[in-house]
């Protein structure tokens, strides 16, 4: 009768894997799905709270995303999905950092900025999900400002690094630059419209704020979609390993 002897593994033991493509899809889509669910709930249950309502100094007639995600029921789906996507963003950052490898000292600095700005993106997204206008309008605006700066910085650095270090079809680079310039134009308009409504109470400015907020979300997702091909290789996987009695994710 054969006998078997079990010995401790000398190195990491792979116990599972997850395609990087799927991780990217989840990380990018979960906050967006949260917004869509919030809109569905709002239009189904809270229509009266979305149109023709008092806000600061007058009645407004178009709901901003900020207001929608601040409603009690709507914010539940947004909070759960947006916060759940934050850990997955780390793998996206890791892929970007590896992809833009360079021996140039200046570009090494830019890669560090890329990682730091990604961390702040996730941080401010988390803060936006947990501190709404009901809790503190001032903090909510500050967190949105931080998210905007981190996003523009991240997209700008990533576009530069891709241009310098990665050989790709020209249309990918042009698409990134176009979306980045559009974001740089739209985000200041949001802040100006917000101030014109909250400080000067000019008619129509809150509706403009809401429209450009929608446009900002579309542009952010357009930027992510323009980079989707970088994560579409089926051989790129997240490996879950057992190492020294602990589970540890390892990317290859």
TrEMBL record:
One cellular component term (GO) for this entry is: endoplasmic reticulum membrane
Transmembrane annotation, as ranges: 23-45, 76-97, 109-131, 137-157, 177-196, 208-230
Q: Which InterPro entries match?
A: CWH43_N, PGAP2
**Keyword Transcription regulation among record annotations:** no
| Biological process annotations from GO | GPI anchor biosynthetic process
Give one Pfam family: Frag1
Residues forming the CWH43-like N-terminal domain are 22-229
Question: What keywords tag this UniProt record?
Answer: Membrane, Transmembrane, Transmembrane helix
In terms of superkingdom, the source organism counts as Eukaryota
Q: Does the keyword Transmembrane apply?
A: yes
> Would you tell me the protein name for this molecule?
CWH43-like N-terminal domain-containing protein
Q: What is the lineage of its organism?
A: Eukaryota, Metazoa, Ecdysozoa, Nematoda, Chromadorea
């Amino acid at each position: 009768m054969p006998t078997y002897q079990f010995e401790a593994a000398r190195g990491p033991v792979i116990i599972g894997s997850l395609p990087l493509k799927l991780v990217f899809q989840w990380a990018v889509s979960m906050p967006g799905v949260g917004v869509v669910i919030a809109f569905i709930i709002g239009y189904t249950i809270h229509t009266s709270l979305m149109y023709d309502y008092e806000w600061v100094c007058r009645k407004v007639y178009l709901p901003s995303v900020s207001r929608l995600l601040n409603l009690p029921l709507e914010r539940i789906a947004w909070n759960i999905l947006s916060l759940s996507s934050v850990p997955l963003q780390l793998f996206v950052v890791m892929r970007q950092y590896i992809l833009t490898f360079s021996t140039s000292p200046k570009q090494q600095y830019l890669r560090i900025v890329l990682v730091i700005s990604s961390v702040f993106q996730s941080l401010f997204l988390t803060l936006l999900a947990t501190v709404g206008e009901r809790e503190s309008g001032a903090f909510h605006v500050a967190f949105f400002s931080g998210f905007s700066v981190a996003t523009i910085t991240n997209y700008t650095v990533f576009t530069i690094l891709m241009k310098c270090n990665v050989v790709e079809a020209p249309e990918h680079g042009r698409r990134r630059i176009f979306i980045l310039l559009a974001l740089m134009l739209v985000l200041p308009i949001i802040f100006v419209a917000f101030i014109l409504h909250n400080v000067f109470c000019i008619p129509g400015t809150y509706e403009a704020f809401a429209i450009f907020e929608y446009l900002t979300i579309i542009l952010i997702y357009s930027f992510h979609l323009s980079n989707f091909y970088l994560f579409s290789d089926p051989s790129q996987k997240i490996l879950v390993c057992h190492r020294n009695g602990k589970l540890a994710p390892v990317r290859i």
